[in-house]
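Predict fold of PilT protein domain protein; 140 aa.
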Amino acid sequence: MDSKVFLDANFLLDFLLKRKGYDIAFQLLSLAQKRKIKAFTNPSIIQTISFYLQKNFDPTISKVLLLELLKILTIVETDQETILNALNSPIKDIEDAIHYYTVLKHQLDYLITNDIDFLKLDSSLISIKTPTDFLKLFQD
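Predicted 3D structure, encoded as tokens:
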């Protein structure tokens, strides 16, 4: 299985801050580290998680954590066309819409999130899964 997965901020924060969901996040990121899946995110998610990292760690540790994370993640860009598509979409949460259309643009297979509202956007165009549900698919 060579799935391309987009990782949302809440998922990455569960891992980096060792919150509830850390173990599942660790398993999924281990798959990316072993190159069994390809993991992606975008700059706005890196900005979001860096904000929370710096609330919990000093800047040096925050940078080290991000640098380690970027060894296994690929950053995909979100261009103006993608943002316009998001803003013109029926999706109410602008940030979620931008991520949704970023995933579409880059033809990624899954969007991994723990955001309950984001999960409701699951469609025939994008498969949006919790980390647990994705791991179940991967193990089947």
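The first strand starts at residue 4 and ends at 7.
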